[in-house]
Amino acid sequence: MVDYSPAMMTDMYEYTMLDATLQDGTANRRCVFEVFTRHLPEGRRYGVVAGTGRLLEALSEFQPSQADLQFLADRHIVSPETIKWLEHYSFSGSIRGYREGEAFFPNSPILQVEGTFAECTLLETLILSIFNYDSAVASAASRMTSAAKGRPCMDMGGRRTNEWSAVAASRAAIIGGFKGTANLLAAQLYDLPAIGTAAHCFTLVHDSERDAFESQIHALGKNTTLLVDTYNIEEAVKTAVAVGGPELGGVRIDSGDLAALAQRVRNQLDALGATGTKITVTNDLDEYALASLQTAPVDSYGVGTQLVTGSGAPTCAMVYKLTEREGASGVMEPVAKKSTNKATVPGRKLAYRSFQYNLAECEHVVAGSETELEAFGAPENWHDLLVDFVDHGQIDTQYTGHQAIMDAQAHHADVLAELPITAQSLMRGDPVIPTETTVLGPEATI
Known about the structure:
Blueprint lengths: L11 H13 L5 E8 L9 E2 L3 H8 L6 H9 L5 H7 L7 E5 L4 E2 L6 E6 H5 L2 H25 L4 E3 L7 H13 L4 E2 L2 H7 L9 H6 L3 H12 L4 E3 L5 H12 L5 E4 L4 H14 L6 E4 L5 H6 L7 E4 L1 H4 L9 E9 L5 E3 L13 E9 L2 E10 L1 H6 L6 E3 L1 E6 L2 E2 L5 H18 L16 E5 L7
Parallel strand pairs: 6-7, 6-11, 8-9, 9-10, 10-11, 15-19
Antiparallel strand pairs: 1-5, 1-12, 2-4, 3-5, 3-17, 12-13, 14-15, 14-16, 17-18
Helix pairs in contact: 6-7, 7-8, 7-16, 10-11
């Protein structure tokens, strides 16, 4: 694997702010930062949280190496005193937020990071780069699996994005409901089901389509899936069944009018006695294409470009904002921006979802001081959405690794079932439930 340092996956100003606050004495002020988005992508009804496990894995390695420190010193990015401080850096704060697989809406406090200003500010870019991309892919995957109506979707997007984002996309896609990935590194790192057989070049390199099919079946067995649209689909299906017999696992169609072709291929397979042979379709699919294929006899889908680009929304526009900090008196004080169109809600947050008739009806965000939030009593039909991921530097490992991904996938399925059915509509509209924000106590200082 490429050797890299999570501690350098930052913007320069995070280190220059660290340097300045260490010099002026504010670096050790206790702070609370919050991750949220002001709006969903236009027309989307909900978002899906993904990336927490990757953040926790990176956080455990977030310590500048000697090479990192030498680079910072050579470029005069920070002072020698800050270099010495960084030699002993490790995150000792706490992080809580929404579980992976949870739905989020505008102003949902997806993540809250508490610690000193110095240790929290360095995490901004890492957190946002992970959550903005992973949540965008998981959100797209959720829309696609909903449109697929139970037919499995597979990630085939690795060749359509950066090599490292391809790995992240595979993981996020599983959280959104996908069943496997073509990316072997993702499968290796996260113990995910790997899928894939052959491309058109495999057929073209052989002297005949029959030779290619015989070679693939000899190597992979009759349960393999043969690609049948290199030349003539009807002839290819006939040859595929002749070579593989009625036990042939599947055929894949990668071009043309997929619905019409799937119907013809299904009828042809049945006529040839291959009634158990599955049909997979690929070719620039998105949630709208999947919805249009609902009545077609398709058994599974391979999705690439639209998955790894968030199906038109490659970021969730999440931001990382300071909402509470220790003042000169040592007392924690809520703070907020009042910038035009960028105002923030002061104070740390609680987050709940209320239900009626077992359906979610509203997202509730309650802001205030630590004391005020401890005294707050939520109504019985409000479900708490926040969990603890890091407690004073101790990472809860149940939210990392393979099982965490599968738990997130199951959790997302449960969450989606609790949202009003309009959440699964592909028509543009407002968030499926509103968000109500309540601020306890006095207004924030600036």
